[in-house]
């Protein structure tokens, strides 16, 4: 495939306009403010301990998806690139979830194991 053919195939789909990027920026700003609000609500005692971590994790995942889709242009690239990018992201999400469960769920039960 020549570079000219690749360029023609690349330009077949419509790229987002500046307005789209500005709207995505506004959405990212609002999500960041919600993350800060979740932290403040937990510090004030409105949220139960550990709730802010869950709220911030979900909102961060939403921001991550928006940035990857639009600013890194994965929405417009081949599905192979999306798969290569999402597989390690899924592994990282599973590792973080496992650590969250170990620390917050199992860690609350106390240390039942004794060292010899």
Topology:
Elements: H1 3-10, H2 18-44, H3 51-71, H4 79-106
Structural description of this entry:
This protein is mainly α and 116 residues long. It has one domain (17-109). Helices cover 72% and strands 0% of the residues. It contains four helices and no strands. Helix 2 (18-44) runs antiparallel to helix 3 (51-71). The longest helix is centred in the C-terminal third of the chain and has 28 residues, at 79-106. The radius of gyration is 20 Å and the shape is flat.
Primary descriptors:
116 residues; 0% strand; flat; mainly alpha
Q: Proportion of β residues?
A: under 5%
Major sheet: size, sense and barrel closure?
A: none
- Spatial extent as radius of gyration: 20 Å
Q: In total, how many domains does the architecture comprise?
A: 1
Order of helices and strands: HHHH
Mean pLDDT over the full residue set: 80
Question: What's a concise summary of this model?
Answer:
With 116 residues, the chain is an all-alpha fold.
């Amino acid at each position: 495939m020549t570079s000219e053919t690749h360029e023609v195939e690349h330009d077949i789909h419509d790229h987002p306009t500046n307005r789209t990027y500005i709207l995505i920026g506004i959405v990212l700003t609002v999500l960041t403010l919600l993350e800060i609000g979740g932290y403040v609500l937990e510090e004030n005692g409105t949220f139960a301990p550990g709730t802010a971590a869950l709220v911030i994790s979900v909102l961060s995942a939403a921001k991550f998806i928006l940035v990857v889709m639009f600013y890194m242009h994965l929405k417009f690239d081949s599905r192979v690139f999306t798969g290569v990018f999402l597989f390690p992201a899924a592994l990282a999400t599973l590792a973080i979830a496992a650590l969250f469960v170990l620390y917050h769920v199992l860690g609350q039960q106390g240390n039942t194991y004794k060292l010899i």
